[in-house]
Write a structure and sequence with these properties.
Elements (H helix, E strand, L loop, with lengths): L20 E3 L8 H20 L5 H21 L7 H17 L11 H10 L5 H11 L4 E3 L9 H11 L23 H8 L6 E4 L6 H8 L3 E6 L2 H10 L7 E5 L5 H7 L5 E7 L4 H5 L25 H7 L2 H12 L4 H14 L5 H11 L10 H11 L2 H15 E11 L2 H14 L3 E2 L8 E2 L5 E3 L9 H6 L7 E7 L1
Parallel strand pairs: 1-2, 3-4, 3-6, 4-5, 6-7
Antiparallel strand pairs: 7-11, 8-9, 10-11
Helix pairs in contact: 2-3, 13-14, 13-16, 14-15, 17-18
This protein binds S-adenosylmethionine (SAM).
């Protein structure tokens, strides 16, 4: 399938001009040439500021850098015991955000690898990327990134960039997707919408907006909808499809793992329904340039959010052999995980593995084809899950989703493979149990997590008619709970 050209690079690089960026990067990953390059670009940036009429540019830049350094130092020095870890991180990130927004000018700020690691441990995150993602959600006006260069933006471009980060306006470089070329058939549409009971006056969250198939039905029933997606292509297609609903639809750019924070920042505390239709959309798989499919030659990418830091090629070419094997085993249940990981490491020593078909051929060289399934199917699924941390995001949504719901509000999740469904089933059953019993206890005890009831005892699956019309729906399962 042909796909819009700008798709994978949609937000990878900001335009040129005067800048609003916070730069964070790992210094240890940078060569002296890169550092020299950074200084060079910093000087160019100052030059551009001066040309743009910003008087005292150098002083302003160093004052801003000093302020931010001060804030980060206080972040490191403040005794940890004084505040809960996550709150501590957010308060500081917000303070940084305020300091930035107070100056509608240039900012370039460095955080070294060691500092980033320390911060990450202090706030209990598993990776620097996760930490940045949470900070991004806490401070949507700022772009946090780890790129070893300073890019400049004009004030107008900066404002557009910030608005796009807040999900309020068109992306700076909106992909060319429209409802006509974004072909995704919505799965379990009737079932999910019926379960959520949308109506006029109700507020719903669609945490996986995609092409807007479920959201359209919620809007048609009169509800107001907050639609979240991390993929700019999906947001563009959904916006174009749903313009007629005006301000009853709010499109939010971001990862649903941060849904609660993202909505709170927009003044939304409690809603009547929350839907997550987990996984990828058809255009993501079908577009060769996105790099999800071994059937189409394309860059080995697989990022749903094209500006997230780690692509499939990064993992395949840099992860240690044991990590590769673990990914293939845990997320793909691939029995030949070790042999495939070993072969990948041998091949990448000869030349980097950069395309989908290159990787598919390497895997096919280890595993002979049996039956209909391509030997790379499980490995590609595993890499996709790892690249997008799909299970981590789902766990975070499950843990926080109920807190978004009003009493009587419904939480519906559609999954497409057993790893996801297992996580949803376990969590839903856990919060629906009034009591917990253990063999070592004399009697059952109240369950402190008890907060909901199962709407359906068994998951709903697609009907025969849906399966015939859309074979991609075959593994879908819908589970629904209602908050007490
Ligand atoms: C199966 S599609 C949703 C389709 C949609 N329900 C429809 O009917 O058009 C899943 C969408 O969720 C998005 N997505 C997946 N994981 C996400 C996450 N952690 N945060 C935000 N969006 C995510 C993907 O980019 C994709 O567009």
């Amino acid at each position: 399938m042909s796909c819009p050209k700008s798709i994978t690079r949609a937000s990878a690089k900001p335009p040129q001009g005067t800048c609003y960026r916070v730069l964070m990067w790992e210094e240890s990953a940078l060569s002296p040439e890169t550092l020299r390059g950074w200084e060079q670009q910093r000087r160019e940036l100052l030059g551009r500021m001066r040309d743009a009429g910003s008087k005292g540019a150098r002083g302003l830049l160093s004052r801003l850098e000093k302020e931010l350094n001060g804030l980060t130092v206080s972040m490191l020095e403040a005794p940890l015991a004084q505040a809960p870890r996550a709150a501590f991180s957010f308060a500081r990130a917000e303070a940084l955000g305020e300091a930035l927004q107070a100056h509608d000018a240039v900012l370039a700020y460095r955080l070294g690898a060691a500092t980033a690691e320390v911060l990450m441990q202090m706030v209990g995150e598993e990776s620097v990327a996760d930490m940045l993602e949470r900070w991004q959600a806490a401070t949507p006006g700022i772009v946090w990134c780890r790129q070893p260069y300073v890019q400049a933006m004009s004030a107008a471009e900066g404002a557009q960039w910030q608005a796009a980060c807040r999900g309020e306006e068109e992306e700076a470089d909106t992909p060319e997707y429209t409802p006509e070329n974004f072909h995704h058939i919505t799965v379990l549409l009737k079932e999910a919408v019926e379960a959520l009971q949308p109506a006029e006056g109700k507020v719903m969250v669609d945490a996986t907006l995609g092409g807007g198939g479920h959201t359209e039905q919620l809007l048609q029933a009169g509800a107001e909808v907050w639609g979240i997606d991390q993929d700019p292509a999906a947001r563009a297609a959904a916006k174009a499809r749903l313009t007629q609903y005006g301000d009853r639809l709010h499109v939010v750019a971001g990862n649903f793992r941060n849904a609660v924070e993202m909505l709170q920042q927009r003044g939304v505390e409690q809603v009547d329904g929350l839907l997550a239709d987990i996984g990828i959309s058809s255009p993501q798989v079908d577009c060769a340039e996105r790099g999800f499919s071994f059937l189409h030659e394309g860059p080995l990418d697989m990022r749903m959010n094209p500006s997230s830091p780690r692509s499939a090629a990064d993992i395949v070419n840099t992860a240690p052999e044991s990590e590769l094997a673990d990914i293939l085993w845990q997320y793909g249940e691939e029995r030949a995980s070790r042999a495939i990981a070993r072969r990948i490491v041998q091949e990448r020593a000869k030349a980097p593995i950069t395309t989908t078909t290159q990787l598919a051929d390497i895997i096919a060289g280890v595993l002979p084809r049996k039956g209909k399934q391509h030997p790379a199917t499980r490995s590609f699924q595993a890499l996709r899950i790892a690249v997008n941390d799909e299970l981590g995001a789902l766990e975070a949504l499950l843990e926080s989703g109920l807190s978004l719901l009003k009493s009587g509000g419904r939480f519906a999740v559609i999954t497409f493979h057993s790893l996801e469904d297992r996580a949803v089933k376990r969590y839903f059953e856990h919060v629906c149990k009034p009591e917990i019993d253990r063999p070592e206890w004399p009697a059952p005890r109240p369950n402190p997590a008890y907060a909901a009831r199962l709407v359906y005892r068994k998951p709903l699956s697609p009907s025969e008619a849906e399966l015939a019309a859309n074979p991609r729906s075959r593994s879908a399962k819908l589970r629904v709970i209602e908050k007490l």
